[in-house]
Amino acid sequence: MRIKLKPSITAPLLVFVMYLLMAASTLADVERLGRRENVFLAVIILQIILFIIPGIIYCRFKGNGFISKVRFNRFSPDKIWLSVCSFFVLASGSALVKLGLYAIGYYSQQYTLYENYLPNDASSVANLVYILIAIAIIPAITEEFIFRGIILGEYTEMGTKPKTAVILSSVMFAMLHFNLYQFPVYFFGGIVLGYVAFISDSVFCAMIVHLLNNIFSLLFEPQLLRLISQTDSPVFVLFILVIIFFIFLILFLQCVENIYYTKGIRGEHSAPQKRKKRKKANRFTPDTEALLSPVLLMCIITYIIITLTLK
Q: Is pLDDT above 50 for 194?
């Protein structure tokens, strides 16, 4: 069985279903769940229900050839440096965005979708390991599978420009967290991770960057915020962050140049890919069609309603 609807409909529809599942998960008895010994297992199961099962069902109904769009490709060793540079761009850039929000009084300390499920005592080594698995490793896999795998792949395949595909997947990724104050942070993260997946042609590369950033957010970001709030010269710390961001942004762009130069030498993607001819009745370009999707609008309205309700 194969779904005949266009990706501009089915891609945001998948995200819309996950929005509803995420909203339903907030009705769980968090206090009772937090006292259970299997809280980390519960968080993992929650992520499987939210991401893995809908994603697998989506791939199944899209047909056997769809999995090639998800970019389950190995990445060569030259992409490792790209991942390292991307991580520092993401970590330092996200920290700057969060500090900017904090400075104007709109900062939220939520750093994960599953923060409410975390136990208060995370000081033991065992709890730390469980937290890294449940809150850092698993989300990096599940979220990248959906947003940089399926969603980005769908928009790219339908013929949208790379920047349009990255922006749309980033918007839907940011809205998933249902936190208005953190929207710029997650949107920025989605942009970086989207280009990492697109340039490396591997969702695994984006998963690694996402994982490193999750670990940084969990273990080091609170200390960074405390350092800036307590230090006598916060401007100096901010200056260091800006320097790190621009240094690794330049290195990242240099990696991109080298990757495409190597592809050019090998003759890979040397000619622009032919887009499928659209019927004359369709007056919209793929980019316009994706942006004007009624299901995308439905996702935005749902995000606003749920965010205001949760607030």
A: yes
Two structure tokens written together for 142: 């599940």
Q: What is the DSSP string of the chain?
A: ----S-HHHHHHHHHHHHHHHHHHHTTS-HHHHHTSTTHHHHHHHHHIIIIIHHHHHHHHHH-GGGGGGGT-----THHHHHHHHHHHHHHHHHHHHHHHHHHTT------STTGGGS-S---SHHHHHHHIIIIIIHHHHHHHIIIIIIIHHHHHHTT--HHHHHHHHHHHHHHTT--TTTHHHHHHHHHHHHHHHHHHT-HHHHHHHHHHHHHHHHHTHHHHHHHHHHSS-HHHHHHHHHHHHHHHHHHHHHHHHHHHHHHHHHTTT-SPPPPPPPPTT--S-HHHHHHT-HHHHHHHHHHHHHHHHH-
C-alpha gyration radius of the chain? 20
Q: What is the predicted pLDDT for the residue at 31?
A: 47
Residue 27 phi/psi, 5-degree rounding, is: -80, -5
Asked if 290 contacts 155 with a C-beta cutoff of 8 angstroms, the reply is yes
Q: Is the pLDDT of residue 34 over 70?
A: no
Contact indicator for 299, 15 with CB cutoff of 8 Å: yes
Per-residue model confidence (pLDDT) at position 29: 54
For the record, the structure tokens of 238 come out as: 């901010």
Go through the chain and tell me how many residues it has: 311
pLDDT at res. 274: 45
Token pair 């993260």 is at which residue?
A: 189
Per-residue confidence at 87, pLDDT binned at 50, 70, 90? very high
Which residue has 């967290």 as its token pair? 177
Side chain identity at residue 193, one-letter code: L
Residue 10 near residue 293 (C-beta atoms within 8 A): no
Q: Which residues lie closer than 8 Å to 306 by C-beta, 6 or more apart?
A: 19, 23, 178
Query: pLDDT tens for residues 237-254?
Result: 888 999 999 999 999 999
Q: Which two tokens stand for residue 278?
A: 């659209």
